[in-house]
Design brief:
With about 300 residues, the chain is mainly alpha-helical. Helix content is about 55%, strand content about 5%.
Length: about 300
């Protein structure tokens, strides 16, 4: 038996069946190396099936981290499964603009996106992540999906920091979820599929945000805008369904870096403004704080968090 390509003799154990005849292992390997890996619009290798490459590790990992943080807070002193807002962890991690301006606790911009106020709150957010995450993760790839998720969470927090009440507290993953809504809508638009079903879902969520008290409108808005901008950066700022092109990795990284730079610059400017402004000019009076701040934080008079934490 001879190889159909190189005409070299091959033993029965080494022969590989082809469309016509058999090939030797060397020619099979050479042919496989010349086949280009199919990629998505974001430049990620196409993954399908149930293999490890197609499994949405990042999505399920984010769900696990959110649930774990909720359980740790809920079972801490002063907390329970129905309400964890009075625990030490919650009050050290949620987004208090004055804590960033006065004590420079910038980590709250991201840690607040892993906190939730109740079982209903975390249940709704994690269900949305479970529905939206796997498809977007397969299309974007793991690191791009992670970048859009985290930038959306940061964008929502920065929007609250810059335009929200300095004495109010905000927590929740909806900043990132709304960023994923924007990413899913843009991906649907670029691929030429109908955006109507997703538009209806987004409109329902917007109506819910505007009509239900205790929900951070700024957090949702900021997450949606930054999630959309991050997705556009990965797509090369193109929205044409016809013949979309895959942009280079360098261009994608530059776009994401520019968005991150703007968010960080806005954070620094707003933190400096909060730090220099006198308490009486902040526009919000102190009223019934959730709990005293952590033992390592001391807030000046007038800078304590206001009332109940707002959900996002």
């Amino acid at each position: 038996m001879r190889c159909i390509r190189c005409d070299r003799p091959i033993c029965p154990e080494c022969q590989r069946p082809s469309a016509v005849g058999f090939q030797c292992p060397d020619d099979v390997a050479a042919g496989a190396s010349s086949v280009r890996t199919p990629r998505t619009l974001f430049g990620s290798p196409v993954r399908s099936g149930l293999g490890s490459g197609a499994f949405p590790f990042v999505t399920y990992g984010l769900i696990a981290v959110n649930v774990l943080v909720y359980l740790i807070a809920a079972f801490g002193p002063g907390g329970n499964l129905l309400d964890d807002t009075g625990t030490k962890l919650f009050n050290q991690w949620d987004l208090w603009p004055n804590a960033i301006g006065v004590s420079h606790e910038y980590y709250r911009l991201l840690t607040s996106a892993f906190l939730h106020l109740s079982l209903v709150h975390i249940g709704l957010n994690m269900y949305a992540l479970y529905v939206l995450g796997p498809g977007l993760e397969r299309a974007m790839g793991r690191w791009r999906f992670s970048a859009v998720y985290l930038l959306s969470a940061l964008g929502g927090s920065v929007c609250v920091l810059c335009f929200g009440a300095p004495n109010s507290a905000v927590a929740g993953a909806s900043t990132a979820i709304f960023g994923l809504f924007a990413a899913a809508w843009l991906l649907t638009r670029v691929t030429g599929a109908s955006t109507r079903p997703l538009t209806v879902v987004i409109v329902i969520n917007v109506v819910f945000t505007l009509s239900v008290p205790g929900i951070s409108k700024l957090g949702h808005l900021g997450g949606f805008i930054i999630g959309g901008l991050a997705t556009l950066a990965l797509l090369g700022w193109q929205l044409r369904p016809a013949n979309p092109r895959i942009v280079s990795l360098r261009t994608q990284l530059a776009g994401l870096a520019a968005i991150l730079f703007v968010l960080l610059a806005a954070t620094v400017i707003r933190a400096d403004s909060l730090n220099s402004a006198p308490p009486q000019n902040l526009g919000v009076a102190v009223s019934a704080p959730i709990a005293p701040p952590g033992p390592t934080v001391s807030y000046p008079q007038g800078y304590a968090p206001l009332g109940r934490t707002t959900s996002v």
